[in-house]
Amino acid sequence: MSARPALRMALAALAALAPAAGGAQPLPPALQARVAACAACHGADGHATRPEVPHLAGQPALFLENRLVMMREGLSPVPAMAGLLDGLGDAELSALARHFAARPLQPPGPARDAAQAARGAALSQRAHCGSCHLPDYAGREQIPRLAGQREDYLLKSLRDFAAGRTAGRDKLMSSALVGLSDADLRDLAHHLAHHRVTTPPR
């Protein structure tokens, strides 16, 4: 079986495992050690403190599940995650995703630069960010939340998408960033990082 059909089957299985109503179930003891490993970079509450590491708290559970599957299968490699997902089945990845998705989202951190945020807001309209990520950038289903994400991580991700360095990721993002300068990407990241989510995680 090729990688893509196998991936579709895995994602379908994860969708079937997701609970009908929101809320994470208590993690089994075997997964608690994995959560501790995640916390070393992403924070025990899902809020990362290391540079260019994303917050996981409040992300859509399906988005996190998809990313975990892609990384486990080697279809979207992240060097820092190498080996951490070995031996985990779909149900365990789903449980980890729900655990971090259910962590409360903290409000944005450092004071925003109003002029830079305004430029970023205009760029987000130009790039139609809200069409997929929703107008408040809360994300939905397999599409990540951008609002309140770490600014340095957003900037790194935007630069990677713009340069085509995103194996296994949706190419739509790369096309949405065509024509934006690095200064534009910095403004966009600043706007998104300091935008408050107004809707609950989906």
From TrEMBL:
Heme c 1 binds at residues 38, 41-42, 81. Residues 18-104, 115-196 form the Cytochrome c domain. Its main location: periplasm. Pfam families: Cytochrom_C. InterPro entries: Cyt_c-like_dom, Cyt_c-like_dom_sf, Cytochrome_c4-like, Cytochrome_c_Oxidase_Subunit. Binds 2 heme c groups covalently per subunit. Heme c 2 binds at residues 129, 132-133, 173. Keywords: Electron transport, Heme, Iron, Metal-binding, Periplasm, Signal, Transport. GO terms for cellular component: periplasmic space. Residues 1-20 form the signal peptide. The keyword Disulfide bond does not apply. The keyword Cell inner membrane does not apply. GO terms for molecular function: electron transfer activity; heme binding; iron ion binding. It is found in: Periplasm. This is Cytochrome c domain-containing protein. It comes from Piscinibacter sakaiensis.
